[in-house]
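Subject: Predicted fold for Neurobeachin beta-propeller domain-containing protein, 437 residues

User T.R. writes:
Posting the sequence so we have a shared reference for the thread.
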Amino acid sequence: MEISVIASSSIDGGIGSWDIKTGTEQLRFKQCASPAHGLTAVGEKFLAASQLRNASGSSGSIFFWSWNKPQVEVKSFPVESVKALAANSEGTYIVGGGASGDIFLWEVASGKLLKKWHAHYRSVTCLLFSGDDSLLVSGSEDGSVRVWSLLRLFDDLQRQQQGSTLYEHDFNEHTTSVTDIVIDYGGCNAFIVSASGDGTCKVWSLSKGKLLRNIIFPAAINALALDPGGSIFYAASVDSKIYVGAMNSSSDYATQSLGSVSEQGKAVTCLAYCADGNLLISGSEDGVICVWDPKLRRLVRTFSHGKGPVNNIQVVRRTVVGNSNKAQSSWKRNGSSLPPPPLEKYERSGDNTMDGIVIVDPPPLSDVPVYSSYHSADLINEQVRELQQQGSAATEIEMERLKLEYKKSLQMNDQWQKNYENLLQVVMEEELNGSSS
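User M.O. replies:
I've generated the structure tokens; pasting them so everyone works from the same file.
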């Protein structure tokens, strides 16, 4: 397992990558000037970052890099400027938050825009998937935090019944723009912490759907990082300090601080936490990246981005693929070594809805069979077409296997649809019986 720290700036200084254990700079990815929350690791395959092409932010793009190449491999140009960007844990889907308040969800391997919906009244500032990838949490310049169920977003029947209210929760307690969001690993019982320029961090309960506590800080908060223990979080402030907040404290005021990140006293702009070694990583306006031991409150090492303020930091864990034939065959078969196509601007009209549906895999130990490791019938079709063009005996065998998986995936979709319709019928009958008794 290789653990790297990646960081970007709003000024075109590229994306820096360092080995967190040795401090060695690994590679500098070129041509990146990204807004805050505009950098994400796409699984173990690629990096992606949103770009703003002019000062007004009226137009922008999304760039992809492969891990071993410094040059941009794929450039996409969404229909509007995208700032916040996030990918699910497997790197199969990527979401972008638009300046209009819209959210876009793409399938990475096919580039297909699966979904677009209006999420906020103003620009989306940050996006985050839950630990199990079933929920998406968004923050906005309008001060709101909203929670979205991916299953519900793709449920046409429920959307028609409930109109445009697609979110699970709508939290509206911040008075200015939401600057960052973190979520713990509690599933539907998880806690969400949001930060804002209003100088507060708020702890929300997903299960109760309400605000649990409001923690007031001496200055505006730019970024958050959650301790893996789940009892405390770290808040990066414009006053150059990193404060410690308690998730379950009865007090509403946090006073503990890790101190100043740099001697110059520059604002701390972003945070990330590395559970391996329990290290806290911070970036600041002077381009310095600091690695802290938060328990001992001491500085471990520093990296220099070299140009401009650091506005994005992520800790990336990647499995180093061996040279065995089996590993290489699996790597190639899943298309991981090839750059993805550009992301589409618009949703395709007239497509079969089931072809682009997001498939949520059943949990471990489930009795539900998993027929295929692919995520949409569109992607399987694309790989079949590529194999047909190659035309060898080996590819013929592989093509037949893909065709069989394609057929099974459609059968699985049909079965899930029937199960859903049966369950819906049972619920409706119970509601009718209950109302008549």
